[in-house]
Design goal:
By secondary structure, the chain is α+β, with helices and mostly antiparallel strands. It folds into three domains: 153 residues; 129 residues, PH-domain like, CATH 2.30.29.30; 47 residues. Helices cover 50% and strands 19% of the residues. The chain has eight helices and eleven strands. A hairpin with a 2-residue loop joins strand 4 and strand 5.
């Protein structure tokens, strides 16, 4: 326990440095450099470049540091602060290590691109004379990649809980009779605040499409298509049915797809575990973890973890996971006895 607490403390300190302090420091430095360059910049400056690398969008010079500050702080909050807050109960895993490396990489890449593009326009008479943006894009990509790798290796490889610790004893069931039929059903949905936020996003997209259509905007069709696609994805990945019977495990979206099936004969091990969406899978929904696990992760808490004979692991967050685990183990044992 002492070693785990020590490892967790080291991982947290490293995460705070790389996911919070480093990106916020880079944001301050970039914004200061951009503000100091304003007197030497044309008005307006180029802020957008086309596919050819030539400028095609312009704005007042002060817009660049304002956007840089918003992006730097916003990405740090989205990737760093929220991830750290989501692991406040003591669990840690490779996904958090990845977020700790990705946060400074993303912030550094964006700020390098913005700062390079601004400094390249000092002394120009017009923003239309801004140099090609391709070198800045290359520099930003290299900067982000290097800082991400450094951030990854600077953090300790620590897994505490990580979805592998048993929630409790999985329990036992009396041996099933050879002809006894059993069925276990549960529904699992994303938390209400999460669903409200996602469906609100869909409403905003569709509302934007309607406004664009009424004002003869050119983006109406694109917004409508994107809104419908996002709406379908939200509907398909926020509500699932979990079923265990003598055929194995089935997890099916309320819409019918996606669906996941693990035949009883492919089950190698079953456990009830505790899962933190951010720490173990990097978020909510149908997820693929860095350690190779995949699953339906809609909330924080107990989950059913099934390991296939191939070694692949599937996880689904569901209430009464201990009973589900015990039943699936009992069915697996009965099936094994029939083959003897």
């Amino acid at each position: 326990m002492t070693d785990s607490l020590s490892d967790l403390a080291r991982a947290r300190r490293a995460f705070i440095w790389w996911a919070l302090i480093v990106p916020l420091t880079l944001t301050v430095i970039a914004v200061v450099v951009q503000v100091l360059a304003i007197p030497a910049l044309p008005d307006p400056v180029a802020v957008h470049w086309g596919a050819s690398g030539e400028p095609d969008g312009f704005a007042a010079p002060w817009v660049v540091p304002v956007i840089s500050a918003a992006v730097g702080v916003g990405l740090t909050a989205l990737l760093g602060v929220f991830a750290y807050a989501g692991a406040r109960q003591g669990e840690w895993g490779p996904t958090l290590r990845f977020l700790g490396a990705m946060t400074p990489a993303a912030v550094a890449g964006v700020l390098m691109l913005a700062t390079w593009s601004v400094l390249g326009q000092r002394g120009l008479a017009s923003g239309t004379d801004a140099p090609n943006i391709v070198p800045a894009v290359v520099a930003a990509a290299v900067t982000g990649l290097v800082l991400g790798l450094v951030g990854w290796f600077a953090q300790p490889a620590v897994t505490v809980s990580g979805g592998n610790a048993a929630l409790s004893d999985d329990g036992t069931l009396a041996p099933l009779a050879p002809t006894e039929r059993v069925l276990w059903l549960r529904s699992v949905t994303m938390s209400m605040p999460g669903m409200i936020a996602l469906y609100a996003l869909v409403v905003v997209m569709l509302g934007g499409a309607m406004v664009s259509f009424l004002t003869s905007g050119s983006a109406a069709v694109i917004l409508l298509i994107v809104g419908l696609i996002v709406g379908a994805l939200v509907a398909a990945t926020t509500m699932f049915r979990v079923r265990i019977d003598d055929q194995g495990l089935r997890v099916t979206s309320y819409l019918g797809i996606p669906r996941f099936r693990i035949p009883l004969g492919e089950v190698s091990a079953v456990h009830a575990v505790f899962v933190s969406p951010l720490a173990d899978f990097g978020g909510w929904g149908v997820r693929f973890a860095i350690d190779g696990r995949r699953g339906v992760v809609l909330r924080r808490g107990e989950a059913l973890e099934v390991t296939r004979r191939s070694g692949r692991v599937f996880v689904v967050t569901v209430d009464d996971a201990s009973t589900a685990s015990a039943l699936l183990n009992a069915l697996r044992q009965r099936a094994a006895e029939k083959t003897i």
